[in-house]
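Review session, final week

We close the course with one last complete record, chosen because it touches almost every idea we covered. It is Cytochrome b561, a protein from Pedobacter hartonius with 467 residues. Go through it on your own first, then we will talk.
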Amino acid sequence: MIKEKHSLAMRWTHWVNFPILFIMIWSGLLIYWANDHYTITLFGHTFVRFFPKWIYDLLHIPYRLAEGMAFHFLFMWFFTLNGIFYVLYTLISGEWKALLPQRNSFREAWQVLLHDLHIRSTAPPQDKYNAAQRISYTAIVLMGFGSVLTGLAIYKPVQFYWLTWLCGGYHLARILHFSLTIDYLLFFVIHVVQVTLAGWNNFRSAVAGFEVTPQADNAADPKINRRSFIAFGTFFAGGLAAYGGWKWLYNSPAETPSITAAARKPLRRALNQTELVFRRLFSDNHTVKTYPKAMAAKKVRVNSNIGSDDADYNTANWKLSVVKSRTETFDIGIEEIRSLPKTEIIFDFKCVEGWDQIQHWAGVKFTDLIAHYHLNEQALMDYVGLQTPNGGYYVGLDRDSAMHPQTILAYEMNDQPLTMEHGAPLRLIVPVKYGIKNLKRIGTITFSNQRPRDYWAEQGYDYYSGL
């Protein structure tokens, strides 16, 4: 006899979520590798490091940060939309009544565990789901909700500053996000064990939607066999289609090099579409959190000197070239820039690799430079391009980010003139962007309605790279 158990919507959201979550965890590892600093330490001794080198090597993780971010920021949409559909369906259909834990669920879940361990002879009575399933299935939904919220809190901590605050700050949001990933892996192991212990009838219900009541002639029931065949056939066909889609995406050709390069074509399209979404949320009213001067790092981290590594560069000869048009360029000396109103900012500088540091910078607001040199017409263009004097490093900024009230052209760090390794005599500080946009030693500024060249966008990274 057949007993209906799981609807088609419940089954497919369950199975669709599995490969999506796997890809999210895998791409998350590609990102985490760039700054894998989480450990379990007690009394100065590290007992567990997340993760050992052999795991990275086994999964071919190292040096794939840009790729990991592109995959992660594509599949986050699938993960979120699938989760929203699942929750809405359970609410509208009334499935939530069978899923939510009840008053006695925790006591009964303990009894289920004892029964599964063969310590208790009889299982507690259950409805559609037993108490342990109610708790675990509700928990996984809450975990998914937590992953989306903490993910947004660390992905866009400026535009979603209120969410980052609700998560306890940027660092706690990162820890929570990472912890949820570990929890997913633990849940997966426990879930597989539970399904195995529950037996074939339970697994079939997760695929075909029905379970069979114990009767001697069930094996010969043509209706059971027919429905099982159709359901499993559809299940495997869907699995093959998903695998084919993944192979197509993973093996898709790289984009044709232009302003951006090195990313797979579909991933670059996804990055560009994601940029459009978050650019609409951008506001000058969304500013980075500032800190007291005492909290600023005394030793400011140096991560790269691409484009500013000229050992014999003479800053005395430096001039900032501002290109107003194809036929008009003018130069500005550092003393002219120092004569403009000075602005200081102490904020948490964030690197695309995952590390961050509270840093103290001072200089002139980009908007003040624009106003003083009557560049208002040029500033109406969509993009600002900046590059080093030797042309070795270059970035493109959208107009809104360049004109943000916290964007400065810095000539001081910790109340001292910039050092060579930090981009003397003038560098860009744009707090609403990752560090890859904070160009050292500005040589030239241009304006255009087309995207200027961007060094890291040519290496497969997101052109926007906004916080």
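Two points worth writing down before the exam:
The radius of gyration is 28 Å.
DSSP finds 14 helices and 14 strands in the chain.
Good luck, everyone.
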